[in-house]
Fold these 2 entries.
Entry 1:
Amino acid sequence: MIRTAPIIRVEAADPGDEAARALLDALSRTLEALTGASGRASFDPDDVRGAGACFLLAHGPEGEALGCGGYRPLEPGVAEIKRMYAVPGSRGVGAALLVALERRARSDGYETVRLETRRVNSRAVAFYERSGYVRIAAYGRYIGRSDAACFGKSLQDG
């Protein structure tokens, strides 16, 4: 039997849309259970609405919302990826979202992307490492936080 990848459609959305809010709430619940904090304090929906920002939803073959993620300007040439989430069991959704975010960031003129996840979130850490992200020094609000794992990736290489 030949297995084919599911059809995943990734498109721009507003983080206030109903489907986006449901995914962001699911992410917050997941993070709360895993880390003790929902992550809501480090995300302002307006950050991914303005110029140089982006918010995406991933939809499955039946149109169901399966994942979300966005980026915001961090400093000149650098975007920060925020609120990446894929519904558990939705194979390929996280990778499709991350690739789409990187492409959009590159087209918006960014040279590098950064992100933070919690060290205890071993699935996310492994996902970003598999996706070509490398550990970097803590930045911004994560400086001095021993629970933070910060990553970066050059968008110059393709």
Entry 2:
Amino acid sequence: MPAIFLLTGNPFVDAGIFVISELSEKRIEDIEVDDLKRLYTKLIDVYFTKAWNKNLISIFTKNHPATHNSGTPERYKKFLEELIKDIKPMHTSGSCVACGRRDESNVKIAKEKSGIGKHLVPLTGSADFVNFFPNATLGLAMCSVCLLAIQFMPIFLHQCGGKFLLMHSNSEKVMRYWAKNCVAELNKQIALDNFTGCYSNDINNPVNSFFRSIEDMIVKYDEDWHRENVFIRFYYFSNYAQSPFVEIYDIPTPVFRFLAYVKQVDAYSEWRELTGRAYDRKGNQVYDRLIRGESIVRYFFKGEREVFGNWELLKFYLKEVKEMDEKRINAIRDLADRIADLISRLNDVRRLFQLETVKDYSGFRNVLRFLAKDAVKVGMEEPLIKFDEYVGLILPDGAMGWNEVRDLLLFRIYEQLHDWLKSRGSEIIEGENL
């Protein structure tokens, strides 16, 4: 028989497809009708437990066949069976808004007056409000196969802060492993006869929750993740009838690659410590900044002139996430190495203290000027910094971004002078007024 399922790009449908694939222990293209006949009873056993039914009200509303006041396991069983009986072969086109390969469902409950709305497909609209749907029709046109997939979708969700996280990715590996974790949680609940609803990692902030889940997945599954072109989108939503809600978060490919590289270079424990220090009342500033495309360089400092990771880790972040030119990265590194060498020759932390405490671009230039003079005094063969290097690579945009350049210099200096600084203890000498 030709394949039943095809990935659609619809996040609700695709999530359900991956759950079915994991439950059946088959590739998506190998799933058969007999598999669906075997699996749908699991939904009935699970969804009518107290915790899962409570979740379904916010996923599908109280008008869903499993949550309606008149809803019973028998009624829901009949609905699922009718969807399976209505499975048609895929064509080159069709009216289904998800797969586009079949026409809309012929199942009675999906063709009632209100049509296919938010009670069957979250966040789509309801009742007679035709402005929610294409061509002023009553409800969506969706085939029975896609509607059936959506019935399995809640197993794919994470509950978080009273709402739900739905992940969607261009990577089938990411989708498959996400489904694997959620199905494992479901099977655990069934085995222990302890039903707690959708998967939860006990983190209520959505950004913190999905970053932690992604990091755990990268660590748990041995893949060359940093070589994958993975893009991830999260939908944080509630379909509760009186207060539907959705926020969308994107994790671009460079951010995912950086998270994967952290594991690749065995810096995961340090990364956890780094992000662990970034929490405030609003959330986690590192995760939030990665989402917004803002710099996280400042968070690579532990304090007391120590850093998280090493220059290679920071360089990967600068190159992949910040899209900084490698020639510029190397120029900043080389300048930092020369400054570190100079400070050790001077055997004095005064200039380092000045570099750490400078408040503006003018002051930063002054510190570099003092260092350049010191380089002459100690007899360094080459100038500390050349004009073309300064204006073309170190600070090509002038004052813009000077503080990030300063932080990068400090990171490398701390790395290079780690033992020397450690031997001096907490010594701090304030130098010239800038």
